[in-house]
Amino acid sequence: MIRFEHVSKRYADGTSAVDDLSFEVAEGELVTLVGPSGCGKTTTMKMVNRLVEPTSGRVLVEGRDVAGVDPVQLRRRIGYVIQQVGLFPHRTVLDNTATVPQLLGTGRARARARAAELLELVGLDPSVHGPRYPEQLSGGQRQRVGVARALAADPPVLLMDEPFGAVDPVVRERLQNEFLALQSRVRKTVLFVTHDIEEAVRLGDRIAVYGQGRIEQFDAPATVLGAPATEYVAGFVGADRGLKRLAVTPLARVDLEHPAVFQVGDRLPGGAEGPAVVLDGAGQPYGWIPAEEVRLGGEVRDRVRRMDARVPLGSPLKQALALMLRHDAGWIAVVDPEDGDRFAGVLTPARLHRALRRSVGAQEPTAGAGSARPGSAPGAAGAEDPGRG
Ligand SMILES: Nc1ncnc2c1ncn2[C@@H]1O[C@H](COP(=O)(O)OP(=O)(O)OP(=O)(O)O)[C@@H](O)[C@H]1O
């Protein structure tokens, strides 16, 4: 969908911004470009919509060399979101959002109706925020308008240059989550520039880690974190990359343990081994019974401790760990969202550790930084059977 073929850019003053860049963004894929300031991310992005022309090489969008496409035509197919959103200050939010469709010839009424839909899509209330002027919005709300406006012409391609860079971390995380939810619906081909590795791994289907003017590694987030290709990448992703991997490793069924399960109305058979999980009538987690009480037998309802905290299969391990810590529990109940949120098993710290190891084991090692250990992560062939438990 977007393809760079041996692209280099040298600015007039001799600065070499990018050097022999080749990579591809598939249709519907979100690729994040991450790297330190001045490494050429923005230059890369601007060559897609011809704000910058390559010195050599080609950039293709939808199979066509952009050098041969009229820039105005080209930009109609490419939404562009930047940090300083660039909203028109004297137009309302609704009019700002409707501008592009109107320029493209959509009638005013239809363009405004579409703009209202888009505002809703990005989490703004068109009747409340639509009539306001940009200065009457918070920074986070302005960024949402920027995204809505970029989507207004329904372009297949979106370029986003640090779109959430100017808002505080809390709002930023919310915008990221909203954007991910939005992207799962609209499935645009997205090139997303950031200097924040956390943001890059959270959003990207794949990440391009930039060194000076070139890509050091282009891989899925879990691979970049689990098996950095070079010392440079390892340094850039940080010593806590193991922790970061928690955020990008989904909780899978093979990670679960299956303790004894009872219904609230059941009677405990004395001598059973616990701990046990207690489900309600709908098969959803209701509580648990500690091992020593399971052994005692008796009525489930007399022994059960309430705990309905749960995490859906497919959630990041980080979410499961956070819940485990919040409830000060040695495990957390896991439910299957594809089966009416019914109980699927429990995740324990040991299983969580194994899940992380599994994700590394599958991907390690790649290129040989000096410290790479060919073959396996520490203990990957250790005591626990990595298969179904
Ligand atoms: N118009 C220009 N003329 C000359 N040099 C430029 C121009 N634009 C960018 N550069 C230089 O090209 C290099 C890459 O810049 P670019 O903006 O692509 O980096 P970046 O990775 O996006 O950085 P940041 O994260 O700080 O925005 C830098 O050394 C920059 O100073």
Describe the structure.
Residues 359-389 are annotated as: Disordered. This is ABC transporter ATP-binding protein. Residues 367-389 have a biased composition (Low complexity). It comes from Streptomyces sanyensis. It contains 15 helices and 19 strands. With 389 residues, it is of the alpha/beta class. It folds into two domains: 2-248, Rossmann fold (3-Layer(aba) Sandwich); 253-352, CBS-domain (Roll). The strands form five sheets. Strands 6-7-8-3-9-10 form a six-stranded mixed β-sheet. Residues 362-389 have low confidence and may be disordered. The structure holds adenosine-5'-triphosphate.
Search tags:
389 residues, 6-stranded mixed beta sheet, 4-stranded antiparallel beta sheet, CBS domain, CBS-domain, AAA+_ATPase, globular, ATP-binding, 19 strands, alpha/beta, 2 domains
Strand order, sheet with most strands:
6-7-8-3-9-10
CATH superfamily of the largest domain: P-loop containing nucleotide triphosphate hydrolases
Task: Provide the gyration radius in Å.
Answer: 25 Å
Number of DSSP strands? 19
Bin the strand percentage. Answer: 15-25%
Structural class: alpha/beta
Summarize the main sheet. Answer: 6 strands, mixed
Looking at the overall shape, the CATH architecture of the largest domain is: 3-Layer(aba) Sandwich
Number of alpha- plus pi-helical segments: 15
Which CATH class of the largest domain? Alpha Beta
